[in-house]
Design brief:
The structure is a single chain. This protein is of the alpha+beta class. It has one domain. The chain is about 35% helix and about 30% strand. It is built from 10 helices and 11 strands. The chain has a 10-stranded antiparallel barrel with strand order 1-3-4-5-6-7-8-9-10-11. The longest helix is centred in the last third of the chain and has 23 residues. The mean pLDDT is about 90.
């Protein structure tokens, strides 16, 4: 199923979900920067009754030919879920689908991830924390892949990130896979450029210039165990306007929505 038809299918199920958030990402691996063709859609509003929103996912998972086990996980966790996310690769009808379940129970909050690649269902767990502790920041620097350790060290020196930001850790089978820094105030990419430029080849990819004014929500780093390390940049915002018909239109809408709300977010976190 081509990109446009796949987005149309998503729109049939998600376009009218209140508070829907969209996210896209870029990946830098070596000297190659690429757009990922797998946007993420987050359902759920803080403190609200999200049962109707979460009810949009079962028929969509069926339409995407997801296995019964993945659909069962979504049903089982929905009663205690705060948010649910669905990432869909737009490249083909058989492309991967990932389901994320951010839940809360008497033990606290947790995020679970399930990725269906057409043959296997992979399970991930995510843990979160703050950056207030110097010991915790040092530990994160030791876990990141050596290719990105200097960058992480430099980013973790920023007072605003220490004070207001945070991190997520992705585990598979108990092994750390990815480290994500969280920027609640969505700084523009070019404001992070002095640190990020060190990761770029001598001649920065043209694509890099196209996103200099994109408000960044997360930065993702490969851990030491990854044989082909990468850096990922995530842009996220509340859906507004018409449903996108292409990935390029989706990216433009997310950047516009994030830019429109960035000033208020910056004031809230003291940027």
């Amino acid at each position: 199923m081509p990109e446009r038809q796949r987005l149309q299918l998503l729109g049939q199920h998600l376009a009218t979900v209140p508070g829907l958030r969209m996210e896209f990402s870029l990946q830098l691996r070596g000297a190659r920067l690429r757009r990922r063709a797998a946007p993420l859609f987050w359902l759920g509003e803080p403190g609200g009754d999200n049962r109707a929103a979460f009810g949009r996912l079962p028929p969509l998972l069926q339409a995407l030919h997801c296995p019964a086990a993945l659909q069962q996980y979504q049903r089982e966790h929905s009663p205690r879920a705060l948010y649910q996310g669905l990432a869909v690769d737009l490249s083909s009808d058989a492309a991967p689908v990932s389901l994320f379940l951010h839940c809360r129970d008497r033990h606290g909050e947790q995020r679970l991830g399930y990725r269906w690649d057409g043959q296997q269902l992979q399970h991930s767990e995510y843990r979160t924390g703050t950056l207030h502790s110097a010991r915790r920041r040092d530990w994160l620097q030791q876990q990141v892949h050596p290719d990105y350790q200097p960058l992480l060290v430099r980013l973790l020196q920023a007072p605003c990130l220490i004070r207001r930001g945070g991190y997520w850790l992705q585990y598979q089978h108990g092994q750390l896979q990815e480290i994500y820094l969280t920027y609640p105030w969505h700084p523009l990419l070019h404001s992070l450029a002095p640190a990020l430029d060190a990761c770029l080849p001598p001649t920065a990819p043209a694509l890099w210039q196209d996103y200099q004014h994109a408000p960044i929500r997360h930065l993702g780093f490969s851990s030491q165990c990854q044989p082909a390390p990468a850096l990922a940049l995530y842009v996220s915002a509340r859906h507004a306007g018409h449903w996108p018909q292409t990935l390029a239109a989706l990216e433009q809408g997310v950047i516009a929505s994030a830019t429109a709300s960035r000033a208020a977010l910056a004031r809230q976190v003291g940027d």
